[in-house]
Specification:
- The protein has 210 residues and is mostly beta strands.
- The chain has one domain: Beta Barrel (Porin).
- Helices cover 13% and strands 57% of the residues.
- The protein contains two helices and ten strands; from the N terminus they run ααββββββββββ.
- The protein has helices at 2-21, 24-31, and strands spanning 48-58, 68-79, 85-96, 107-122, 128-147, 151-169, 174-184, 187-190, 193-196, 200-209.
- The strands form two sheets. The chain has an eight-stranded antiparallel beta barrel with strand order 1-2-3-4-5-6-7-10.
- A hairpin with a 5-residue loop joins strand 4 (107-122) and strand 5 (128-147).
- The radius of gyration is 19 Å and the shape is elongated.
Length: 210
């Protein structure tokens, strides 16, 4: 059931990420010098990526033993015209069946969700394209307790993120990418205890390229 919930959240985030980038389509077309009319089809000569990410995220020792989480993520980005700059949206969710030792209650689980909007700069070297990125982010942490009594604690915060990685084309429409992403400045308070909610994630993405 938990896996199904995570899959549903990831699918919803995929759609949300794509819709968030849709307003950039006309901007991208203008930037690349394309004249648009009422009959112009939806699309752009610039490229679009959308990919599923798998990996791990580390939240630091204050979250042990729930500090290292398996991670499921979605990335979508769109090239702005013919420039090397891409608009990016990224979403991730991680889950642990433990809570931090510093948690105010007993046993339970920890769920972490993050979401970011930013910009990437790609530099092509043949089929390999290294990139760096920066953006604004949102991080939500939630404890679900089962013992000694059921309950939930959660908090969210806003901050920024930095990322670096590389994409390698497999075919004309598919690529593999590796990304290291760090969220910063996301302190949270749960049950009158302060937590550093920053995360550092290492992800591998399988991407569709258009």
């Amino acid at each position: 059931m938990r896996a199904l919930r995570l899959a549903a959240v990831a699918a919803s985030a995929t759609c949300a990420s794509c819709y968030l980038l849709l307003p950039l389509v006309p901007i991208s077309m203008v930037a690349s010098g394309v004249e648009t009319t009422a009959d112009t089809p939806i699309g752009t000569p610039a490229r679009v990526h959308g990919g599923l990410a798998l990996g791990r995220t580390d939240s630091g020792p204050s979250w042990a033993p729930a500090d290292e989480l398996p991670w499921l993520g979605i990335d979508a980005d769109m090239q702005l015209g013919d420039t090397p700059i891409w608009a990016t949206s990224c979403f991730g969710v991680g889950y642990s069946d433990e809570v931090p030792r510093t948690s105010p209650r007993g046993q339970g689980s920890t769920t972490t969700v993050d979401f970011g909007l930013g910009l990437r700069h790609y530099q092509a070297f043949g089929p390999v394209e290294p990139f760096v990125g920066v953006g604004l982010g949102f991080v939500d942490r939630r404890f679900t307790y089962t013992d000694p009594e059921p309950g939930n604690l959660y908090d969210y915060s806003f901050g920024g993120y930095l990322e670096a990685g590389a994409s390698c084309a497999i075919t004309g429409n598919f690529s593999l990418a590796a990304v290291a992403r760090s969220y910063l400045g996301t302190d949270q308070s749960l049950a009158e205890q302060s937590f550093d909610a920053d995360t550092f994630s290492l992800l591998v993405l399988f991407c569709f390229r258009r």
